[in-house]
Amino acid sequence: MNLDVKQIFKAPTYEPLATVDVFYTYIPSWQVYSGAKRMDIAVGDVIEIWLKKGAYGWEPALSGNTVKHIKYVENRKEPIPEPIWHSMKRNIRNVWLRHSSVTVWIGILAFLFTFVLFAWRKRK
């Protein structure tokens, strides 16, 4: 990510900054993530960010926890679109597993178990 520098609060005096290359790991918004806060930055955002010198250059000091939005662009474009199979799996999980009663699932599993058991006995 390349950021245009508008104001520097504190930085090494020997390094004049007009733009800064910030190194981070991109995780799409549709991907399950646990850990520090996401860095939700898009083209057109105005942010305040704390950086530290890392192994590859400037890195966010504490991931998304050090990013403060001053201007947030509403129409955000996802660089990596969500795969169709992923959205289908998410929708099936949301509709079927979260809104079905446990009794219905136990009944379906009992029926399938009985069906498999009778089919297996007939083969013998």
UniProtKB/TrEMBL annotation:
Protein name: Uncharacterized protein
Highest taxon, organism lineage: Bacteria
TM regions (residue ranges): 102-120
Keywords: Membrane, Transmembrane, Transmembrane helix
